[in-house]
Amino acid sequence: MPSYTLDSLFFVSYGGYDWKGQKVYWDDIELMGYADYDVGVKEILSPGSAGSFESSEESPYGYSSSSYEPVARIKNFGREPADFAVVAEILQGETQVYYDSFDWSLPADTDDTVSFNTFDPPDTGAYILHIYTVMDEPPAIDESDADDEKNRELYFIAITEPVTPITLLDLKVNPICPGDVQIQYSLPNGHEGTLTLLDASGRCVDAKQVKGYGTVKFSTDQSSGVYFIKLEAGGSAMSRKIILIE
User: Fold this and answer.
1) Residue 91 pLDDT > 50, yes or no?
2) Tens of pLDDT along 5-38?
3) Topology of 167-244 in CATH?
4) CATH code for residues 37-156
């Protein structure tokens, strides 16, 4: 038996509904037509300046910025000019945490880029962004809902703040072993810093790179007297005075 492929059909009318010669394709069991009124969302775009992110088709979009500006490409797929609404909403679970909408107009078979008000996430975690079009005022009623909406998963991560609190937990000088200076230090969140031994004039005697918390031993043959220990990290610094005893 020969195999046939149905490429296209042309309908002039059906009952009381005027098809106006719309072209309809047969794709398996789905009919896709060129409607007079059909608007929708082509794609959700990555924001140009809303923070760094990683994207893929399979994984969520992770944003390290504290805010996000939804941006989308919308299109009038129809034969007629269209006036319609564009809506963006963001859900955290089942709770709506963001909503923005405005009216838009497009000539037939044209597209445009639209942006929405900035969204400031209440906390870190996963969100779902919905962007969709609404055209329901007669006679311009959207004849196809196949492309009305696009979704994207967003994942906001915490922003790493600069190191500000610095604590020298303890300062121990061993008077029995001259030249050995033991310093206990602590940096928040495992940050890196520099621990420096200075003499009374401010000259660097020794310096060590440190991270997190722990104990550092400075071995020095300096004479007894006044010295300073300085801990620096993330643009902040803290000093302690010590006295070496022979």
Assistant:
1) yes
2) 555 445 444 455 554 444 444 555 445 556 788 9
3) Immunoglobulin-like (2.60.40)
4) 2.60.40.10
